[in-house]
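From the shared-data thread, chain only:
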Amino acid sequence: MNSNNIQRLVISAIFVSIAFIYIVRLFFVQVVDESYKLSANNNVVRQIIDYPVRGLIYDRTGKLLVYNEAAYDVMVIPNQLQEMDTTEFCSLINISKDYFNKNIRKAKRYSSKRPSIFLKQLSSKDFASLQEKLHKYKGFYVQPRTVRKYPYKIAPHALGYIGEVNDKIINKLPYYKSGDYIGISGIEQSYEQHLRGKRGLKYVLVDVFGREKGRFEEGKYDTLAVPGQNLISSIDAKLQSYGEALFQNKLGGVVAIEPGTGEILAMVSSPGYDPNLMVGRSRNFNYGNLISDGLKPMFNRAMQANYPPGSTFKTINALIAQQEGVAHEGTYYGCNMGFHMRGLSIGCHSHSTPLNLQQSIQHSCNAYYCRVFRSLIDNNKYANSEEGYATWKNHVNSFGLGIKIGVDLPHELGGLVPSTTFYDKIYGKNRWKASSILSLSIGQGELGVTPLQLANLSAIIANNGFYYAPHFIKGIGEEEHLPEKYIKKNYTTIQRQYYNVVKEGMRDVVTKGTARNAEVKDLNICGKTGTAENPHGKDHSLFIAFAPLENPKIAIAVMVENSGYGTTWAAPIASLMIEQYLNDSISRPWVEEHIMNGNLLPIIEADPESNPISLKE
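Structure, as tokens:
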């Protein structure tokens, strides 16, 4: 056979093969694969997203904190629109004609053939009015979905809120599509993958009026939505609500922790807001008002605000001093109304003198801790003060200060415990000593902590030297276990035996020291006051505590901005919350009334000329 014949045979074989492939493919499309009917019947088959039920959130006692309520998105397919009574339609769903025209134009720009959202989150009441007449408005139909509801109207910063995804989220997370909702803050964001579930898809037949006539192919191509997992939170709804009530008309934060588990019982940031404001069609309007509020109600002061720890920090210096061998239970120092050395002076209040370690905590003696701090930093066993400071800083960091302790909420602040490099830049390398940074001895200077970190400090002391990373979730679904980090003990660098004298000193603070107004019969509260200097106004009131002394059930930190001494506001608030949690009742109604009626907010006045809000201390 010559080469020309071979070439003709090869070419013929190629054409026959191509023809065969097309015939087989055509047979497969027209006869075998019925799914192509979906494309052929697009004019009578409608795809409806079956949004999953988002997981519920409960408090530790079984109270429902977050649930779902039915809502409906009004969808539009522009090329199916016909002449209609626009005025009646707008009246049914409570929108203006301008809104109608604007959204129709927007839908056409997106696609004339594909459905898009015309109006989000129609209420059940409005949907009922629309449903009766929907057949008159060809091109419109309703997409069922749900919105979040918060029956107790508490814990907005902890629970968080959800919002519609934007292009940035869609590009980053391919699972999400336009119109989907995602957790934006709080537990809703941290546990999004557990709460969201998995969406499904339904195909339904519709008539020429857009009315649903049944399932396509008896649901053969439908996919079922998978509900999200329910969460059991560690929040005690009653304690949370009580804490928010105590903090009405005050700025600050409270965090209460169960020491034996690290579970957060309550987290209050004041002022707060009703989480229901972040739900539904008015969400954007409400969000704008909250963001522009001069008191910053959306700012989580409990874990995102830096405050000096004040004298609460003396508990840590007392522990480090014992560990480093520069002080013990029998170490006495005198106080002459403060610490005075070569022109350097840090004042103190009047109290008995000299004091031992336990008494120094009871009376919160500044002079005592100035001397202890000098012994720690300028210790002869170190080559220089920088080495002594680095050792001290390592101890402080082990208490979860100056670092993020890993709470299961986004945007945690780590606080500030400055590095040696920080002070080298200020004073020069090897040119600074304890006297240069002596304010750290009493919790002032450059130190910055959050109420969450202070509550964790209180839990550490209650536990004699360890903590579990604070967290808001006790259980996920029916079988899901908590991440390892929340069931792992984190130990400080301080040995267990050194905590007893500090705990006894904290007990004395409440029974005969600076916080006698925090004493509650039979609860054995242990606490430490703090008064943090504030360069922008009146001092902040601080108090950390745990109770009872033996087998502690609650550890707490309270910070009240611009309110003076720790004993004035923070201590009684903490003691009331402890009593409420442990006894489920209040034995000192006069204290409760005083706190509830206290108004410590700055005066807010509107400037008549420029119109912005101005704050007056």
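The chain has a mean pLDDT of 89.
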